């Protein structure tokens, strides 16, 4: 993905999540650390309907800027919805599932030898 489109997509995703009242929004920089994506976005929703709506809004807004191939998993009433744009992976969790999977710990500073953990809390 073009770096400008990547940043535009990331801004669109985080703004959409903020507008939908997502909680504890985190962006993790995966560049040079993972081959499957450059950025990971993690957010919490309080109910299945909120999480499903957040996923639908992101998918629609990405389509509007020309990103047509977004893989969505778990959108039918689960505790965790995944959106994969290719370069950005978005995880939308209920609080209990987020605590259980601990993705911030998995991709955070504990596993990174540098001082920069690549985690940005919004």
Describe the structure.
It is built from four helices and six strands; from the N terminus they run αββαβββααβ. It has 122 residues and is α+β, with helices and mostly antiparallel strands. The protein has one domain (3-121): 2-Layer Sandwich (Beta Polymerase, domain 2), CATH 3.30.460.10. A six-stranded mixed beta sheet has the order 3-4-5-2-1-6. The longest helix is centred in the N-terminal third of the chain and has 17 residues, at 3-19. The radius of gyration is 14 Å and the shape is globular.
Task: Briefly characterize the structure.
With 122 residues, this protein is α+β, with helices and mostly antiparallel strands.
Average pLDDT taken over every residue: 87
Question: Please, what is the CATH homologous superfamily?
Answer: Beta Polymerase, domain 2
Instruction: Report helical residue fraction.
Output: 25-40%
Please provide the count of β strands.
6
- Which sequence of strands runs across the widest sheet? 3-4-5-2-1-6
- Termini gap: 23 Å
Q: What's the topology here?
A:
Blueprint: H1 3-19, E1 23-29, E2 39-44, H2 48-64, E3 71-73, E4 80-84, E5 88-93, H3 95-101, H4 103-107, E6 119-121
Task: Sum up the structure in keywords.
about 40% helix; Beta Polymerase, domain 2; 6 strands; about 120 residues; alpha+beta; globular; 4 helices; single chain
